[in-house]
Fold:
Amino acid sequence: MDEPPVFRYLRPFMFRRFHFPRALLLGLALSAAPAAARTAIPVTVASANLSDNITQAYEDPGIRILQALRPDVVAIQEFNYKTGNTQDLVRRLFGPGYHFARESGGVRLPNGVISRYPITAFGQWDDPYVLNRRFFWATIAIPGPKPLHVVSVHLVQNRAERRIPEARLLLQLIRKQFGPDDYIVLCGDFNVTSRDTAAFLELSKWFVDDRQPADQEGNKNTNATRNKPYDFVLPSPALAPLHVPTVLAGQKFPDGLVFDTRLWNPPPAPAEWEDTARDMQHLPVLKTFRIPLR
Structure:
């Protein structure tokens, strides 16, 4: 009888002085075999401006939504928490194993990044078009030979004409900071009313928007009334080809997911059906990328 393939993983152990039970060795081999054959891993990135509309800090509904989604990386806006510090919020969201970096300088609506994987560098750029926040970036040591650079932004809300030079400046800063073949993802609340606005067209001159996340009904809009696409996850040209469907609670979203709790029956725990409607101005957006390990 041919030797089962799994015993290739056992051979280094089977004829040494130390003797493990055969059943234990078989179990170890079965668990090791998939990892040995793995060539890529999925990394899900979310953009989240889920603070409470009244306090502009993270309250129970936004927290439950992120706990239900549990993405690998979050580009977060309005990164405030009234009942503790930033570390308390991250631990409540995802437990002690996640890493985070947050905009400094005492601004009222800081941007930041939260990650399952270590953050190896981070920084911020001044945004001359808005006074209460800056552009923020973080470099994440995802598995594989290349890091992931995440840029978390919150473009100016009023006076749309200011978003055009703001977007132009942001793109220049990103292209100067990172290489053309790097994995980069630009995320955040762009405050644009459509994908045809001049500010968005500036950003999509280089960032890729060919996969547009939607909910179960095909709605791509992310504001509270579901008629404007405020929030985005945009990959760089090097990252975009790695896009794969986002899967949540057994449902597959080919172009990524706009998550509205009211469209789930029931929503994934611990989210509650009305969480999206509770003083929430935005919905989260998710995309997934299959990252090669070598």
Notes: Residues 53 and 279 are 5 Å apart (CA to CA). Helices lie at 11-14, 22-37, 60-69, 86-94, 160-177, 198-203. The chain is about 20% helix and 25% strand. The longest strand covers residues 40-48.
